[in-house]
Amino acid sequence: MDITQLKGLLDQTYGFDISSKTRAREYVYARRVFSKVSRDFGYTFGEIGIAIGCDHATIIHHVKSFDTVHETDKDVYRKVSIILKSSDRLNPYKNLQEPTDVSIYIDRISELEAMVIEKDFTVEQDSMCRLIEIASSWDEDALENFIETRVIPFDKMNNNQ
């Protein structure tokens, strides 16, 4: 679900356009709920701001001050989160519950190693060779632990920026 569809879902849930330029409490709380849900699903502060016509600093404030919304708005947040998380297509956390197939990463490391050996060394390739050299000495459990606790979270962090 893209962010405009997510906004549409919250507009429909609240019964008004949450991006309306008003400081009325119900609109502000609705924007806080939208900001929190969107952030939970990996959207950047900038993307969220564009969707509702706010700057990124306002979105940061909305996310940080989410706890001040009414219980009814927290219920909306919970309901929307449950709806989104129940759909495999929409759930950004789904893959975190599944075990990682380490063989995919081992095969990819072998492919990269072959590519590096074929080419002249650059700074980037030197770093990759160093990584391959270090990782190739690990047993499968150590490699799986490294991928789960370091590589996947780092990759997700880089993709969200």
Report on this model:
With 161 residues, this protein is an all-alpha fold. It has two domains: 3-92, Orthogonal Bundle (Chromosomal Replication Initiator Protein Dnaa, Chain: A), CATH 1.10.1750.10; 102-159, no CATH class. 70% of the residues lie in helices and 0% in strands. It has eight helices and no strands. The protein has helices at residues 3-14, 25-40, 45-52, 56-64, 71-86, 102-118, 123-136, 140-159. Helix 2 (25-40) packs across helix 4 (56-64), helix 2 packs parallel to helix 5 and helix 3 crosses helix 4 (56-64).
Please provide a brief summary of the model.
The protein has 161 residues and is mainly alpha-helical. It contains 8 helices and no strands.
Strand and helix layout:
Layout: H1 3-14, H2 25-40, H3 45-52, H4 56-64, H5 71-86, H6 102-118, H7 123-136, H8 140-159
Features:
8 helices, Chromosomal Replication Initiator Protein Dnaa, Chain: A, 161 residues, 2 domains
Using the CA coordinates, give the radius of gyration: 21 Å
Return the structural class: mainly alpha
Classified in CATH, the superfamily of the largest domain is DnaA protein, C-terminal DNA-binding domain
Helix content estimate: 55-70%
Unreliably modeled segments: 88-99
The biggest beta sheet is recorded as: none
Report the order of strands and helices: HHHHHHHH
What's the domain count?
A: 2
Q: What is the CATH topology of the largest domain?
A: Chromosomal Replication Initiator Protein Dnaa, Chain: A
Shape: elongated
Based on the structure, what is the oligomeric state of the protein chains? single chain
Please identify the top-level CATH class of the largest domain.
Mainly Alpha
Estimate the strand proportion.
under 5%
